[in-house]
Amino acid sequence: MLDLNALARFAAVVEHAGFSPAARALGLPRQSIHRSVVKLEEQAGVRLLERSPRHLRPTDAGRRLFEHANEILRHAKQAQTALSIASSEPTGVLRLTASHLLAETYLSEAVPAFLARWPRVSVDADFTVFVADLLRDDFDLAIRASASLPPSMFAKRLGTVQAVCCASPDYLEGAEPISHPFSLTKHPLLVYGPVLSSNRWSFKRASEQINLEIRPRLRSDSANIARLACLAHQGVLRVPRFAVQAELASGSLIEVCADWKQPETPIWAVYPSRSDQNPAVGAFLAVLQETLA
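Predicted structure:
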């Protein structure tokens, strides 16, 4: 195993073209630098430097080692910086983004707890149904429901979300019975979600798979608006289950097609690769996992 200190001394000798200049640059005795290089040559089993009373230059093997040494030392410095940053107290501004529904579900406890624990960090939160480009739009962290994530992102899985179809008892009493997912197309449909994912619904029961193309009477990026329309007996609502959990429990909304399962979507905390060394992101993720637990 090569000694990092010895590599650094050897690289300094090559860079400064001599033992004495390298010793002055590193603030070490010349003899110490010389011993390190000799030891490296013994370990390698080849001569790394060609020496004369007036000149010094690396051999072929020495040039190759010099290139590798610079790369190794650069990674070592980055690792040291990461450790230093990770151990420092979070400061500055943490920029978050999520849909309103995910923010209410996953961030409503985490944000106040984070502010209380880390007084030197400010939070700038932007809640929208549109998926932001974290790098372009300068966000540090996003909460997303997604089956796949960009490969350039880091992510921590927070849970899963599953859609549910439901309607009010008054609506169901006067409407045509819903005995099968195909029956849904005969009803006014109320949908929460972005446009692209709102018109295609999937259902599965045992080995049977059904895909529906639907035309919603209401599509909204506000789960609350869609829920209120459903409570006002305006049709069948499709929404993440946790958005209507209280209404399903109280009976003010009733699940339909309950024996047909809809796809589960993972919920992620997503952050750019540039932020994996950001103490504020690490601290927020820790608080988020505590509050969700």
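Summary: The mean pLDDT is 85.
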